[in-house]
Design goal:
Layout: H1 21-30, H2 34-52, H3 62-71, E1 77-78, E2 95-96, E3 106-108, H4 114-126, H5 132-151, H6 158-170, H7 174-180, H8 183-219, H9 231-239, H10 241-252, H11 255-266, H12 280-283, H13 290-316, H14 323-330, H15 354-363, E4 367-368, E5 387-388, H16 396-399, H17 406-413, H18 417-434, H19 453-467, H20 471-493
Antiparallel strand pairs: 1-3, 2-3, 4-5
């Protein structure tokens, strides 16, 4: 399995020699500068994300209040605030803290702090009126540019990368998250930025490793020594305990893979489940071996994870935020249908939740009007809809059918390092989220899929590269875009 990621995965299925209109379009796209395409995607995504939800009501802006608390030297937010120009008494996901009668009252948020840290400069200027949803739309557009940058590392054909980026930008629930950008969705967007950056750095490190190997084979000298250090340097290093250990550590650490792991680890400061994508960095990146790749990336990732634990300890006195346990015992879960009630005697993360939550992730349908309802055929009529999203969620295979492209690729190419690493990352993150007591409410689609979408996007991109930009690959991406546009419409219309 220890093979280069530069495999035949990107070779398209043989096609006929007939030159058609679609082939001409693909050829034209392949001639455009990748930098220009990336810029176009950022501008396009920004326009669509902003104008998909122009009102941006901002009901839930927990991170704005958290940023304000940081600026005032507190870890806890003022809560509940029921009067004044800015109120938050209606907030969910806040653990109340005891206070004396007549003194200010505060609440503890369960969320990691990075989104609030990013908001601090804006809150310092605009105060609690800060439009965090606009920041989320901007960040979502940047993520689209980063997704283009990542997928363009996987194929030499712009047409393949364009189709894959369109899928990420408008065919997954990233669109819904970016146009809405309320508390929970903003956390996803921030985490995605660093996951995409970390993956791209690992891909670049892997490509550099391959190039180094090729050059070493071409320029190897028969009489070269395995240790070409100068005699004086070698003597000094061997006589110094610090330098000797430093050299030993450097022998096991690839610098670029270390940076990739560090950047990837920052995502945990926004969404902790993102760190479970770490298996990817065992298989992909610089280092030349499974052990060296894993050690280098792990050494980098442990730094931001350690920062998160220190933050929790400073803010709450615990390594793990106790607000999660409080929410588990008190959060309203009555939206689930009979037979799917949450057993609060289980843990916050419990494998016994997986079968029930898998129904939401893979099989949950939209809401369909009862038989005999005279609503015509409209799927966009808020007064009498034939079909509308379920607030519980919807199957990722219904909302983003282009994910199906990953299945044949996984069967055909699972031995390739890039495919195996991506599959394990998706599986690890998905299992963690499925074992969680709550799957998100209210939402279009399955919002937790944002945690693993970069790794799934790699699989979809490689599948498009392998099978070609053909009518059925384009149709699956187009269907994904249409369905997500429908979901965004309903999310905004219903005030979700």
């Amino acid at each position: 399995m220890e093979r280069s990621i530069a495999t035949d995965l990107s070779r398209p299925v043989p096609r006929s020699g007939r030159r058609d209109v679609s082939g001409t379009v693909r050829g034209a796209i392949d001639q455009i500068s990748p930098a220009h395409i990336g810029l176009f995607f950022v501008i396009l995504a920004l326009g669509i994300y902003v104008f998909s939800n122009p009102a941006r009501l901002g009901w839930y802006d927990h991170f704005v209040w958290q940023a304000d608390a940081f600026l005032h030297g507190r870890f806890v937010i003022a809560w509940p605030v029921a009067s004044g120009p800015h109120v938050n008494a209606y907030f969910q996901d806040v653990m109340p803290l005891p206070s004396e009668p007549g003194s200010p009252s505060y609440g503890l948020l369960p969320f990691p702090p990075l989104p609030a840290v990013l908001l601090m400069p804006f809150v310092a200027i605009f105060g609690l009126a800060t439009d965090d949803q606009l920041l989320g739309a901007i960040l979502g557009a940047i993520n689209v540019g980063l997704a283009w940058r990542m997928v363009s590392r996987l194929t030499e054909r712009n047409s393949v990368a364009v189709l894959a980026t369109l899928f990420f930008a408008f065919g997954t629930v990233h669109w819904y998250a970016a146009m809405l950008s309320t508390t929970w969705f903003l956390a996803h967007l921030v985490a995605l930025t660093f996951v995409l950056l970390g993956i791209t750095l690992a891909l670049d490190a892997d490509r550099r490793e391959q190039l180094r190997g090729t050059l070493a084979r071409l320029t190897a000298k028969p009489d070269s020594s395995p240790d070409d250090r100068h005699e004086v340097v070698a003597t000094i290093e061997e006589s110094s305990l610090f330098l000797a250990w430093s050299r030993r550590i450097r022998a096991h650490v690839d610098g670029m893979q270390f940076v990739a792991g560090f950047v990837f680890g920052i995502a945990a400061l926004a969404r902790l489940p993102a760190i479970f994508g770490a298996p990817f960095f065992i298989f992909v990146g610089g280092g030349g071996s499974y052990w060296r790749r894993a050690f280098s990336a792990g050494l980098g990732a442990v730094i931001p994870v350690g920062v998160l634990l220190i933050y929790n300890l400073a803010a709450t006195g615990h390594l793990f935020n106790p607000a999660y346990e409080w929410l588990f015992q008190t959060e309203y879960l009555g939206y689930l249908p009979p037979g799917m009630e949450i057993n609060r005697d289980w843990g916050i993360e419990d494998p016994r939740f997986i079968p029930m939550n898998s129904l939401i992730m893979f099989l949950w349908p939209p809401e369909i009007a009862p038989l005999g309802t005279d609503c015509g055929l409209s799927v966009l009529n808020p007064e009498c809809p034939v079909l509308r999203p379920s607030p519980i969620g919807m199957s990722i295979l219904l909302t983003s059918p282009a994910y199906l492209l990953a299945l044949p690729l996984a069967l055909l190419a699972w031995r390739q390092r890039l495919v195996m690493g991506s599959l394990l990352a998706v599986a690890a993150i998905a299992l963690l989220n499925l074992a969680h007591f709550s799957q998100g409410w209210v939402q279009f689609g399955y919002r937790f899929s944002n945690d693993f979408v970069p790794f799934a996007l790699i699989l979809v991109t490689l599948a498009i590269a392998r099978f070609g930009v053909r009518w059925w690959t384009v149709a699956l991406v187009a269907a994904s875009i249409v369905i997500n546009a429908w979901g965004v419409y309903w999310g905004v219309t219903l005030g979700w």
